[in-house]
Amino acid sequence: MENRLSEQQGLEICSREFICWIHKRFYEQVPEEFRKIKGPGSDKMLLMEPGRLRDRLIEVGRHMPPLPKALDDFLRRFSDSYHPDKLHGAKKLIAVAASHHRLAWIHPFLDGNGRTARLFSHAYMKKAQIESHGLWTISRGLSRRKEDYQQFLAIADSPRKGNYDVRGNLSDHGLRRFCEFFLDTCLDQIAFMGELLDLDNLQQRIKGYIDLRSQSMIAGEPALRQEAKYILTEVMLRGEVSRGEAKRVTGLGDRTARKVVSQLEGEELVTSESHRSPLRFNIPAKVVGYYFPNLYPEGTI
């Protein structure tokens, strides 16, 4: 999706075509057994077709999405209302949040609407130049606050309440509350990742990991010498370090230091292009939980 956004500058992300494409690209990679869903009002199983708009009326909790025959009109209105090129300044920020709910409310597909809406929001942020540069994602924040997320979606589903709730069919006050929740979640993720990536804190967590390894306290992992932490923190702070410098910072003899470097390379805690190239910082999957605790919601890996 990001590649397509980069290559096609004029891509209309609010269009029916792009929204269906997101759903199709995601679900065509999902095994058929996970695309089978129970039909509305029956026990008959239906096979969801990736990228295809729903052709029947469904009920989602207390929410009754638009009739299938009205989906084209709703998606056309959605595209006209939220096209990022028509909005300026802070309105784009508000539109990121509001469009997320409105797309979920339209519920264009039999299933997978939540995933599609979250991917769409990621695309909208990129298109609106609200870049995360891969450091944070709204999807992670919403998954960590799943119950609140569902609650605020339901609040925004509420019908208009009186003459002071604007003129649409849905509550403007409810949508405002969802937008505040959505943007607050964005801020929370930015602050969270900022703390995780703070160099002093990261340095201490790397040292803590090596302390555990030196005491053989991580099951299935061989012991690492305490001096390995000097190499890792130096490489992390400087980006890359020559092999000679890496050996020097350990304070060990040449032969022992060489073994430490070799072990770090073997475990991909550092990498290099050749046996003579500088060492570079690397984060293999096995250390993510130690370097960046609480990065993933529980149960996602």
From TrEMBL:
Gene3D superfamilies reported for this sequence: Fido-like domain (1.10.3290.10)
Pfam families named among the record's database cross-references: Fic
Domain Fido: from-to ranges: 14-184
InterPro entries, alphabetized: Fido, Fido-like_dom_sf, Fido_containing
Domain of life according to the entry: Bacteria
Protein name listed in UniProt: Fic family protein
